[in-house]
Amino acid sequence: MISAFVLRHPYWILDANIRIGELLCNSPIRIFASMKKILIINGPNLNLLGTREMPVYGNTKFGDYLKSLKTVFPGTGITYFQSNIEGEIITALQKAEGKYSGIILNAGGYTHTSVAIGDAVKAISIPVIEVHISNVFSRESFRYVSYIAPSARGVISGFGLDSYRLAIESLLLA
């Protein structure tokens, strides 16, 4: 029997070595109780993940990582959008209204330069988590400025691609 506390809890943690279909999980996994739709938006040059500045960004392509996210969060609708064009990112933010319960935004270099993307985040009612793969505060000083952070629910920086998983968990637990 499941206790009332468990039913109110946003996710259950299952022990290691649990078989789900043909998949054998060797570490604890979380099963989230509620279905949410999340939009991940990546900005300029993030289409080059896995081949660009590997010491900073790693050697995994985002498409491969996205597949693993969808496996870890099977009850969550995860949609992905990437653009090197500032206006397309703004349009994606605006069009998300009413369709998604959360947005994960890695605006890349636009984070530090685009007042317009910052204004778009401020204009929408959907919670936005700003994400960075690298620790921007251990890099060049111009990266310390974010035009998105003041309007974002939070910022996750420096955990590699795992920053996206942490952002999804924060949106699911909200």
Account of the protein in words:
- This protein has about 170 residues and is an alpha/beta fold.
- The protein has two domains: about 1-35, no CATH class; about 35-174, 3-Layer(aba) Sandwich (Rossmann fold), CATH 3.40.50.
- It is about 30% helix and about 25% strand.
- The chain has six helices and nine strands.
- It has helices at about 5-10, 55, 60-70, 85-95, 115-125, 160-174, and strands spanning about 10-15, 20, 25, 30, 35-40, 75-80, 100-105, 130, 155.
- The protein has a five-stranded parallel sheet with strand order 6-5-7-8-9, with helices on both faces. A two-stranded antiparallel sheet has the order 1-4.
- Helix 4 (about 85-95) packs parallel to helix 5 (about 115-125).
- It starts with a helix and ends with a helix.
- Residues about 1-15 have low confidence and may be disordered.
Strand-residue proportion? 15-25%
Q: Provide the spatial order of strands within the biggest beta sheet.
A: 6-5-7-8-9
Radius of gyration: 17 Å
CATH architecture of the largest domain: 3-Layer(aba) Sandwich
State the order of secondary-structure elements, H for helix, E for strand. Answer: HEEEEEHHEHEHEEH
Largest sheet, if any? 5 strands, parallel
Number of domains: 2
What is the CATH topology assignment of the largest domain? Rossmann fold
The global form is globular
Please identify the structural class as seen in this structure: alpha/beta
The averaged pLDDT comes out at 84
**Total helix count?**
6
What share of the residues lie within helices?
25-40%
CATH class of the largest domain: Alpha Beta
State the fourth-level CATH superfamily of the largest domain: Dehydroquinase, class II
Query: Cα distance, first to last residue?
Result: 26 Å
Low-confidence stretches: 1-13
